[in-house]
Amino acid sequence: MSQWSQVQQLEIKFLEQVDQFYDDNFPMEIRHLLAQWIESQDWEAASNNEAMATILLQNLLIQVDEQLDRVSQEKNLLLIHNLKRIRKLLQGKYHGNPMHIAVIISNCLREERRILAAASMPVQGPLEKSLQNSVVSERQRNVEHKVSAIKNSAQMTDQDVKYLEDLQEEFDFRYKTIQSLEQSDKNSILIKQEMLALQAMLNTLDYKRKEVLSKIGRVIHEIDVLMSNMLTEELLDWKRRQQIACIGGPLHGGLDQLQNCFTLLAESLFQVRRQLEKLDELLTRLTYDGDPIPVQRPQLLEKVNFLLYNLFRNSFVVERQPCMPTHPQRPMVLKTLIQFTVKLRLLIKLPELNYQIRVKATIDNKCNVLRSNRRFILCGTHMKAMNMDESANGSLSVEFRHLQPKEMKSSAGSKGNEGPHMVTEELHSISFETQVCLYGLTINLETSSLPVVMISNVSQLPNAWASIIWYNLSTNDPQNLSFFNNPPAAPLSQLLEVLSWQFSSYVGRGLNSEQLNMLAEKLTGQQVSYNDYQLSWAKFCKEHLPGKSFTFWVWLEAILDLIKKHILPLWIDGYVMGFVSKEKERILLKDKTPGTFLLRFSESNLGGITFTWVDQLENGDVTFHSVEPYNKGRLSALPFADILRDYKVIMADNVPENPLKYLYPDIPKDKAFGKHYSCQPNEVSKPSDGGAKGYVPSVFIPVSKILNDSTDPHSPSDLLPMSPSVYAVLREHLSPTVIETAVCCKLFYT
């Protein structure tokens, strides 16, 4: 079943998450129509290879053309129209930057895998629960309801101001009419009656002025209360959700809803401002003793301007945190002289501001002054105008795509004094500033990215990413650049949840409770109830594991890399138990049918995977065999599924056999891995086929040899893996003595 078919079977709450990342940058119609083809292409590789990205873009357009031909025959007018529009959009948007669409599609496929993984997990973790509680949802609905009510109140006050204006115009006309009469006429009874009517009208005017000012005051107060409480909380919650999403958590939504609220409030405040200006006009034409306008209007106008300043300042946000396109799963880790992207949005979407706001990007170098003198500048286009044309949803935003951090040479020359962890614990931020000039107001706006880590070598990436994880897990302070001067401990339960996210976001399948328990034991060195356990930063990333030359995080990162590059399909299918100790492994296998095996990650070798099977001796005793771990070097030469299929051991009597029969608990091996085999055993060429330029072709055959004395423990070197099944070919051309000699040398050539 294709990945897209699995996505379509998800519950509605997960489908809503999928809907959030499909827009005009990569329309869902194309994802649906070309599902199989899209999933068969290597978009991640193309995101770093312009030539490959160009070819894929051309092929994508060809695929769209083929779909157009098909739907044209079916005379589906709506689909024809949409496909023509989409084709034109894709060609226009990505013709000059094909790697950009490769990045977008790669990210979409990865997010789909993460959502599928999250949907398959039976229990939400504490962090995810906290982000999706009913109180937050209820507050969101209340904010939207109150903003709508405020907008209606401001519009109704507009009608009151218009009525007041009409009433005053009538009063002016009647008053001026009386003033134009001769003195003798002013003493008439009718005129005296008219004067009494004018006095009553003036009283009504006074009442209406006070009423309008009171209504304006109430609208201003409601906006003030909403901004100070619920809207501020909503914005802070969105920023926290963004932090969590950056380290692999659930996608954060809600920014469009916030934009709607901010925009409606800004429109209401500007509407109130115009109402106060209209009252000022009425004041110039008519005033009197006890007139409320000159007393109340200045205070109200000052309050409106104050609220507008605050609203605009809070509306300037980093929509997408800094990220290198080459490492989309590692945001906020930036390498010197490598481009990164970052996107900002103004949540107040007013047409008057389109292309009127220019944003400048700089690097904040105020971090860790006592610990390091590393300083950076930004190269590339660091000033751009915000507009509504580049975003699919028409938001007022700007995306910087060609920024590069460059390290400035230090006159102190103390670079050599920095330890290996100092660079990856040093936090900086990308700062942005702009100015809004609108309706006589000038407002300076500033915002900053979440803390970033600057690296100069890709080997620093794993530890830098660990710093980003720890920071965003431990604090919701967006600008604590001295955080690692004294990093706090983190709740183990939340850390384990984040570690599971690393697997679901990076390799498409999260960790279950048993796997997390094993990681908890490895982190703490004991079996603990990790709900209340606090883990130190040093234990996570700086101290070596007991008896090892590497840290926990380096070990885990190597496993992620191994899965991604060599065993991804097997991991996604759930056939790699992976995180299980040797002791637990034997408990699981001891009562199983001989030949039952499981796959686990090596605890002693970085980026290694091994398999262990159970066997039964003639006396009925159970024995276990573990093969020497495979690392990425050996797996680059031979697919792991083929190794499992062709693996054999040679007993003392030289009888080869494949001991792997059932994947734990009882899945026939070929049923589990059959679809991942790259070729059939009989496709391996025989020596008689001849080699290049007259040489006899050679085949690499790692072989395991098991001694008769099975009571002796086997070391990893005793059980070296054997692959492709060419043993029959060897028997045709080599004597048992030669084979025995080759086994002892652990390598065959034919």
TrEMBL record:
A single Pfam family it belongs to is STAT_bind
Where would you say this protein principally sits, based on its record? cytoplasm
Q: Which CDD domains match?
A: SH2_STAT4, STAT4_CCD, STAT4_DBD
Q: Enumerate the Gene Ontology biological process terms.
A: cell surface receptor signaling pathway via JAK-STAT; defense response to virus; negative regulation of developmental process; regulation of apoptotic process; type I interferon-mediated signaling pathway; type II interferon-mediated signaling pathway
Task: Tell me the compartments it is located in.
Answer: Cytoplasm; Nucleus
* Annotated ranges, domain SH2: 571-673
Keyword Magnesium annotated: no
Molecular function terms, GO-annotated: DNA binding; DNA-binding transcription factor activity, RNA polymerase II-specific
Write out the entry's keywords from A to Z: Acetylation, Activator, ADP-ribosylation, Coiled coil, Cytoplasm, DNA-binding, Isopeptide bond, Methylation, Nucleus, Phosphoprotein, SH2 domain, Transcription, Transcription regulation, Ubl conjugation
Question: Entry's InterPro entries?
Answer: p53-like_TF_DNA-bd_sf, SH2, SH2_dom_sf, STAT, STAT4_CC, STAT4_DBD, STAT4_SH2, STAT_linker
Q: Name one GO cellular component term.
A: cytoplasm
Q: Which family does it belong to?
A: Belongs to the transcription factor STAT family.
Q: What name does the UniProt record give this protein?
A: Signal transducer and activator of transcription
User: Which species does this protein come from?
Assistant: Halcyon senegalensis
Q: Which gene encodes it?
A: Stat4
